[in-house]
Amino acid sequence: MGVTLSRRQILPALFALALPACRSSRTSPQATAGSAPSGAADPDASPANETLSVIEIGTVAPNKDALVLLHGWGAPGNDLASLGRELMRDNTMIFVPAAPLAEGEGRAWWHLDATSRGRYAHDDVLPATFQPLDAITSARHAVQALLRSIHERFAPSLVTIAGFSQGAMLALDVALACEPRVDRVAVLSGALLLDSLPAVHEGCGRSRRVLVMHGRADPIVPFENAERAVAILQQRGVPVDFRPFEGRHEIPRSVRSVLGDFAFGA
Which of 2, 106, 120, 144 would staple 191 via disulfide (CB 3.0–4.6 Å)? Predict the structure, then answer.
């Protein structure tokens, strides 16, 4: 693949996309949470009440290594499918869920507004006025339901969750929770959410392997958010492999190579 895996948005406050839209030959209705078809999602509906339409890449079978890829804000639901095909290895299976909320021509894990925009942890302390954001909680529950389905159906030997931009924030949030089991998480151009701090404090993240990769010149999710996330996680004893790169809000070839080794390597 010789193209950069991102698209720059017109409005600078919005999260960028990850990959050009690509078609998949298979969407699994079984590895889903809820019952409504993803394409019929109400823009204001709760993700927990929506089906996560999931593309399965590779032959799904018990005891394989599993990778779940979460796309960024505003991207098509199949946005990371071509990345998944690039990362495929022997004895692996990859799941690419579409976020449940309609966002223009794409999808979102939660809508961006004055409450949800820039909801990043700047230190290890929850503000006294902190209240969980329902939209983030619902997105977490939807992905957790998908992970439970994968565990129940396939008993995977290794589970990695990775995401880009908004999907990276959600991937880290889900991985820090005590259950369902996640072994590794890759955070690509993301941040640590305030809503993830209770799970950080609970301490189950210390058993996860965490990879953080972020462009130093990222204009969408500034690089200092990655630095803060790494500092907070390390302070709490979470092992983090921090790999800055000279780039913007994107998934360049160097990142894709590291991601494959991290997700499926020893």
Answer: 120
Residue range(s) defining the domain that contains residue 81: 27-264
Q: Which residues contact 43 (CB under 8 A, 6 or more apart)?
A: 101, 102, 103, 111
Report the pLDDT value the prediction gives residue 145, as an integer from 0 to 100. 97
Indicate whether 194 belongs to any domain: yes
Residue 16 lies in a domain: no
Instruction: Kindly report the pTM of this predicted structure.
Output: 0.82
Q: For position 113, which CATH number holds?
A: 3.40.50.1820
Q: Which helix (H) or strand (E) holds 95?
A: strand 92-97
Ranges 65-69, 112-116, 160-164, 171-175: which has the least confidence: 112-116
Average pLDDT, the chain: 84
Measured between alpha carbons, how far is 172 from 164 in angstroms, rounded to an integer? 10
Q: DSSP string spanning 106-156?
A: EEESS--STTTTT-B--SS---TT----HHHHHHHHHHHHHHHHHHHHH--
Residue 153: phi and psi, rounded to 5, are: -80, -35
